[in-house]
User: Which sequence fits this backbone?
């Protein structure tokens, strides 16, 4: 009984993750549209160096949103490292930071690359992949039923 409850709770939590991923996908789409408008502003005001910073800020924000969306959907160590790399790179490129903060950011990126190269073990991601796909399928089914307003009709075997 307890195991069945845990399994249902896991499916429900995955459905919530998929719902949040859907919201993030909408936000990334809106951000991409804003990116196009920002590019237009950069083309029109090409003498202003501030406009390039605004464009890069939107571009990195959109990229981080896309990587975060992939992280929510894939559940892999690799996607987590990629999100962290993009976030630190954005901080270094877009923000006006002190030399010490720049150094710390560069060290952080170097550590992330070292972790990815020498400490990352892909079998950690592969072990739970089949189970994660099944949970995702059931979570998507629950999300579909919830959005359509239907009661739970699927029975566990």
Assistant:
């Amino acid at each position: 009984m307890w195991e069945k409850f845990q399994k249902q709770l896991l499916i429900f939590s995955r459905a919530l993750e998929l719902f949040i991923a859907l919201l993030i996908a909408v936000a990334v789409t809106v951000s991409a549209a804003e990116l196009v408008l920002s590019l237009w502003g950069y083309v029109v005001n090409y003498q202003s160096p501030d406009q390039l910073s605004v464009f890069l800020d939107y571009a990195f924000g959109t990229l981080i949103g896309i990587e975060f969306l992939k992280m929510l959907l894939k559940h892999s160590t690799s996607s987590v490292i990629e999100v962290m790399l993009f976030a630190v790179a954005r901080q270094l490129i877009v923000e006006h930071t002190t030399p010490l903060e720049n150094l710390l950011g560069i060290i952080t990126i170097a550590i992330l690359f070292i972790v990815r190269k020498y400490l990352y073990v892909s079998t950690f991601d592969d072990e739970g992949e089949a189970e994660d796909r099944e949970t995702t399928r059931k979570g998507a089914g629950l999300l579909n039923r919830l959005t359509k307003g239907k009661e739970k009709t699927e029975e566990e075997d």
Summary: The longest helix spans residues 2-44. The chain has six helices and no strands. Residues 48 and 133 are 48 Å apart (CA to CA). The helical segments are 2-44, 49-74, 77-94, 99-119, 122-127, 129-148.
